[in-house]
Design brief:
Layout (H helix, E strand, L loop, with lengths): L4 H10 L7 H11 L5 H11 L4 E5 L2 H6 L1 E2 L2 E6 L2 H7 L5 E4 L5 E9 L12 H12 L3 E6 L4 E6 L2 E4 L3 H35 L2 E2 H28 L4 H11 L2 H12 L5 H13 L2 H4 L2 H8 L9 E2 L4 H5 L8 H9 L2 H7 L5 H4 L6 H12 L3
Parallel strand pairs: 1-4
Antiparallel strand pairs: 1-6, 2-5, 3-5, 4-5, 6-7, 7-8, 9-10
Helix pairs in contact: 3-5, 7-8, 7-9, 8-9, 10-11
Length: 366
């Protein structure tokens, strides 16, 4: 018996809490078709059976309005059922939550004026359906044994686990090298900060290294999403390499930006991430994003000290900001910390002498 209009709307509405961006929907499509999912098992079976398929997932009302005929089913979704139904020529229509199969052998007829660069009939139909509706449309090529997924006209091709792991191995090497380089640079930066001799060129280089690390981590995360259930170990390796660098990146931006708020630091990070390699290497562009328009590469920069203080074990969470608010900069703290420890007492620092000893030890002085 076919699905009623009420059943279809209720099923799709239940799985659509809010309107998602194109990027979020593409990410959802990658996760939905990753190894370990029922949909991926069905797609692997279709490829192994030397068959083709056209599958629409979600936005059911719009999909059904763009076609006709076919067999109304309204049956529970399973990988085996999807595989068996793929033996017919037409499209298969599934709800967004992938719990019900509504139609099989369905004839799709999207607007032919919708633009597409695809050549094969099945791929052209899939591309146009993804533009016409909010469905995830999957096209399986019988001849080439390739699975293409379309979302909003964007196409990505499913890769096998060995293919993904080839990219993963390269990215892990890049991530390891980037983290080692960044660690060395941060140690040097801490020494320069304590010596009060940090230049714009110094921090620009560190920001560049942060971006190399974070960009590699982002690319690796995309591979992890593609791996699905096969990506747990890689995910653990990624977390090991990235560690607490995400927080350190924010703190360093706050240390040197004219506006040291958390919100502004995140805005600057977004802008750093969107910059091309040439601009990331430009101290002038870095200075502009930090809020300076009169700095040169050799200009001395005065850090607040949030990043350095956060690395001291006796500084509890939230205490670094109180110290910075009181002193204004790391150098002011160093100048005053031994002569006037009671000032730190009033801020709630329980052992000012231990804080002083920790900072001087990091400085390499007694």
């Amino acid at each position: 018996m076919g699905a009623t209009e009420h059943e279809i709307k209720h099923s799709d509405a239940a799985s659509q809490v809010k309107e998602k961006t194109k990027e979020e929907r593409i990410h959802d499509a990658v996760v939905a078709t990753a190894p370990g999912t029922s949909l991926r098992r069905a797609l692997d079976m279709i490829i192994a059976g030397n068959m083709g398929a056209l599958i629409c997932v979600g936005d059911t009302d719009a999909v059904l309005a763009a076609g006709n005929d076919g067999f109304p089913l309204n049956i529970s979704f399973t990988a085996n059922r999807l595989f068996e139904l793929s033996k017919m020529d037409g499209a298969i229509v599934i709800d967004k939550g992938m719990t019900q199969i509504y139609r099989a052998n369905f004839c799709l007829d999207p607007d032919p004026s919708l633009p597409t660069s695809e050549t094969g009939m099945r791929h052209r139909t899939a591309a146009r359906m993804s533009l016409l509706t909010k469905a995830m449309v999957i096209s399986v090529s019988e001849r080439r044994h390739v699975v293409s997924v379309f979302v909003d006209g964007h196409r990505f091709q499913l890769r096998s686990v060995p293919e993904i792991m080839s990219s993963v191995n390269q990215l892990l090497v890049t991530l390891q090298n980037s983290r080692q380089t960044l660690d060395r640079s941060l140690l040097r930066l801490t020494t320069l900060e304590l010596d009060n001799y940090v230049t714009l060129g110094d921090i620009s280089e560190v920001f560049y290294q942060f971006e190399v690390l974070m960009t590699s981590a982002e690319q690796l995360q995309k591979c992890i999403d593609e791996l699905g259930s096969e990506g747990k170990t890689v995910d653990m390796q990624r977390d090991e390499f990235v560690g607490d660098m995400d927080e350190e990146y924010d703190l360093m931006i706050r240390d040197y930006a004219t506006d040291s708020s958390e919100e502004h630091a995140k805005e600057i990070r977004v802008k750093f991430h969107a910059m091309n390699n040439k601009d990331l290497r430009s101290t002038k562009r870095i200075a502009e994003l930090l809020g300076y328009h009169d700095k040169t590469e050799d200009s001395i920069m005065t850090p607040l000290g949030l990043r350095t203080l956060s690395r001291v074990s006796v500084v509890r969470e939230g205490m670094a900001e109180k110290i910075v608010d009181e002193y204004g900069s790391l150098q002011e703290l160093l100048d005053d910390i031994q002569d006037n420890p009671s000032r730190l007492d009033s801020l709630g620092v329980k052992n000012p002498s231990l804080l002083a000893a920790s900072l001087y030890r990091m400085w390499g002085k007694h």
